[in-house]
Amino acid sequence: MNIVPRQNGDIVILYLKGDIDINSSIFIETVGYHLENGIVDILCDFAEVDLVDYTGLSVLAIAYKNVLNHHGRMKFINVPIHIKNIFSMVCLDTVFEIYDDEAVALGSFKEDRVIAEIKKKQLRRRFKRLPLSIPVKFKLKHVKEAKLQKGKAFNLSAIGAYILCDKAHALGDILALQMSLMPKPGLMELDAKVVWVAKRELMPQLYPGMGVEFYNINSMVQSTLIQYVERNLSSQEAKE
């Protein structure tokens, strides 16, 4: 198969041609390349796809799952009817978002972002934020030779933290984060995504620093964070 990518803002459109089968690992590699470079919204154009066999379905599923793991979206346009029927046979038509028009599909990504932002704001209101100053260590998660950096968590909630550090990472970077929540023994290890970076002219007292959102956090770890935040907030309020 052949793939021709075209970027539209922060969305990449992949124009696919040929068969999607056992020889289509290039599709997984192409999707992975864009994800690693911060493009997590992907639109696949099937107008010139002739065939998707059983192995090809696995290729699509692997790439699709990789996009979800990066908190992105993969959608499809111009899917021929015989391929739609194959998707239907294995229930992928209930998983994949399929559109007939490129402009409508591109617009749906923007709508998704608006909805996600609303949900994120609602989520933030559910969790209290604790002002504090505790040491943290972090490094880029997917870089083998990444050096461990030191910083301080300026505040903490069950979904994220603000970290003061010598040098902030770029938006979208995934970090491996370590911190100790005393008196609980040991280190808590979390994956975190950089979602905003302080600007000196706007927040000189918090510069350099970055806001991170905990990434793929499990319920047990989140429960530990909630208990820590609530316990320390209660202690601070009692002192006041």
TrEMBL record:
The domain of life is Bacteria
Query: By its UniProt entry, which Gene3D superfamilies does this protein fall under?
Result: predicted glycosyltransferase like domains, STAS domain
**InterPro entries in alphabetical order:** PilZ_domain, STAS_dom, STAS_dom_sf
Q: Which residues form the STAS domain?
A: 1-109
Name the SUPFAM superfamilies for this protein: PilZ domain-like (SSF141371), SpoIIaa-like (SSF52091)
Any idea which GO molecular function terms this record carries?
anti-sigma factor antagonist activity; cyclic-di-GMP binding
Q: What is this protein called?
A: STAS domain-containing protein
Organism this protein belongs to: Candidatus Ghiorseimicrobium undicola
